[in-house]
Specification:
Length: 240
């Protein structure tokens, strides 16, 4: 059971504050009954109508975008830079699940489904994300070992579940490292390599959970299938 204003906000219909206003104004009904009390709890089975619009699962949308470089992953940018939302043709209030840095490219999911966002963002649900990082220098064998055994970043150890040295060019002095991590701290990959003494010149996320970029070009997107969405929901169950 969740608070009504939270459920309305999670549906993407309105912000939580706006949802509270709508409830107080008597614009929300649950199972045909107008509700004006803010703390009212509802379940997924309840029929919630706001201003005549049914909030239901069928209103949820899910997109997988190949984010280009030079794009912010917030819904709105205070400096009016291009956002990941600008790439998606929808009239729904979608937002990205997690963030990729302005200069990071690759796989990002956008939705208006707050439940799925919570599931995938929660560290205990262990959603793997795979990145390819181009490093400012070639990687020494001892640093590769350190990376594999885990690196303390801001007081907390981050241990990649998989590390693959795809290229280590000693002449041109750079390395390409593919690594999978299950946590979602901001700038985690860059900070991890910073601890080892490397700058990340290029970063791309190539996998998120079981999803890959497939043939999507930079700036292209596709909708997730119901099967994929269901599978993403299973992350909640798997790790509980
Ligand atoms: N780690 C980073 O450092 N940057 C990203 O964009 C994603 C993960």
């Amino acid at each position: 059971m969740e608070r009504l204003q939270k459920v309305i906000a999670q549906s993407g219909y309105a912000s939580r504050r706006k949802a509270e206003e709508l409830i107080k104004q008597g614009k929300v009904s649950v199972n045909g009954e107008t509700i004006t009390e803010l703390g009212t709890k509802v379940s997924g089975d309840d029929d919630i109508v706001v201003n005549g619009i049914h909030l239901g699962k069928e209103d949820y949308v899910y997109y997988l975008l190949n984010k280009p470089r030079g794009v912010v992953s917030t819904a709105k940018d205070e400096h009016d830079r291009k956002t990941v939302i600008d790439f998606i043709n929808t009239d729904k209030r979608i937002y990205p699940i997690g963030r990729l840095d302005y200069d990071t490219t690759g796989l990002i999911i956008l939705t208006n489904d707050g439940n799925l966002t919570n599931i995938l963002s929660h560290p205990s649900n262990h959603v793997p994300k795979t990145y390819v990082a181009k490093l400012s220098h070639s990687l020494t064998p001892s640093d590769l070992m350190r990376l594999k055994s885990g690196v303390v970043v801001d007081g907390k150890k981050c241990t990649p579940t998989r590390v693959k040295l795809k290229k280590n060019d000693l002449d041109k002095d750079y390395a390409l490292v593919e690594l999978t991590i299950i946590e979602g701290r901001n700038h985690i990959v860059k900070n991890l390599f910073k601890e080892l003494g490397y700058l990340v010149d290029k970063l791309s996320r190539i996998e998120y959970a079981f999803l890959t970029l497939d043939n999507l070009k930079s700036g292209e997107y596709r909708e997730l299938s119901i099967k994929e969405v269901k599978k993403l929901y299973e992350y909640k169950i798997k790790n509980k």
